[in-house]
Amino acid sequence: MSDNAPLVIIGTGLAGYNLAKEFRKLDAERPLMLISADDGRFYSKPLLSTGFAKGKEADELAMQDAEAMAEQLGAQVLTGQQVTAIDTRERLVRLGDRGLPYSDLVLATGAQVRTLPWREALGERLLSINDLADYGRFRAALKGRRSVLIVGAGLIGCEFANDLRLGGFEVTVVASDPWLMPQLLPEQAAAAVQAGLEELGVEFHLGCAIENMALEGDGLRVRLDSGVELVADQGLSAIGLVPRSELAEAAGLAAGRGVQVDRQLRTSDPHVYALGDCAEVAGLNLMYVMPLMTSARALAKTLSGTPTELSYPAMPIMVKTPACPLVVTPPLSGVAGSWQCDAEGRDVRARFVDANGQLHGFALTGAAVAEKLQLTRELPAWLG
């Protein structure tokens, strides 16, 4: 390793760039390099599921290009570069035959989409949106088209259903789940969101498995196990994300639900760290913006010479379904308890409590979202 080797961050999404910004507030001198597999533009990923309603092209969602980010951060930003391996013994990041030295390395590689078995055969007629380039590709695929079939009724599927409908498209959602966002919501809260989306014009087929998807003309035909057949101009797969941990695992770093890190976000190698969607912190893999930002601030302190342990307060998730406003703080996996719901029309207050009456999560819809701050104060920390 060179004596003047930089701090290297792999990834230029929200995790990578926000860590770099936080780090530069504390250390303006240390050499810094970011490596991006794409063009390195800075953008806010949550805005991708608001772009159709606003009529935004991909270029309009980008805030700064890689050159501007490099200047702002006093850093090198390498774009269009695929990291092929990490050599922890020599402290090198490998880009094919090229080896780049690092003093410390941060993995901010995010998560990749789960794919349907028909993805390859259907080509551009079945896409996913996981980054700005994906959004641009999907917008291009929609030119001259009217109807979209979304596979998946999780948070992302529901946000895009709302956004695409507001953008003027006919939208059908298909999912094997019995109700919307079952990992986050009790049935009563999900029903309120579904009613709001249906009123907007979204059609749902829930509790159904897809038997086959095939090209038909210039669109798609989908057969469900219920016997229903659907046609659409374009498909959007939204069946979830998987942390990108392959690089870490190939380098011999510990991985489970993500790249495993301690409370200082350090991996099993003392000079390699991870944060964001790719990281598993104390058993938690939280693919939301607020935990990512909290992690960036803590890791910046550690990397600038002040070892800092990460702590997570309970952090509500604002789901972008304006057809039925929704805020949810799901109970952590493994917490025993039950949902208690009361509702006035689409204003649902759902509280997840344990046997002693301690609140561990909540879901609020409609006008009930106003109670978010009050209930958040009652929640125990996710990581104290």
Question: What does this protein structure show overall?
Answer:
β16 and β17 form a beta hairpin. The strands form eight sheets. Strands 5-2-1-9-21 form a five-stranded parallel β-sheet. It is globular, with a radius of gyration of 22 Å. The protein has three domains: about 170 residues, FAD/NAD(P)-binding domain (3-Layer(bba) Sandwich); about 120 residues, FAD/NAD(P)-binding domain; about 55 residues, Enolase-like, domain 1 (2-Layer Sandwich), CATH 3.30.390. It has about 375 residues and is α/β, with parallel strands linked by helices. The model has no long low-confidence stretch (mean pLDDT about 95).
Kindly list the characteristics that best describe this protein.
about 375 residues, alpha/beta, FAD/NAD(P)-binding domain, Enolase-like, domain 1, 3 domains, five-stranded parallel beta sheet, 10 helices, 27 strands, about 30% strand, globular
CATH architecture of the largest domain: 3-Layer(bba) Sandwich
Into how many domains do the coordinates divide? 3
Percent helix: 10-25%
Give me the Rg, rounded: 22 Å
Summarize the biggest pleated sheet.
5 strands, parallel
Identify low-pLDDT runs: none
Number of helices: 10
Instruction: Give the class-level CATH name of the largest domain.
Output: Alpha Beta
Identify the strand order in the major beta sheet.
Answer: 5-2-1-9-21
SSE class:
alpha/beta
- The tally of beta strands, per DSSP, is 27
In CATH, the homologous superfamily of the largest domain goes by the name FAD/NAD(P)-binding domain
N-C termini distance: 36 Å
The CATH topology label of the largest domain is FAD/NAD(P)-binding domain
Overall pLDDT metric: 97
Proportion of beta-strand residues: 25-35%
Overall 3D shape: globular
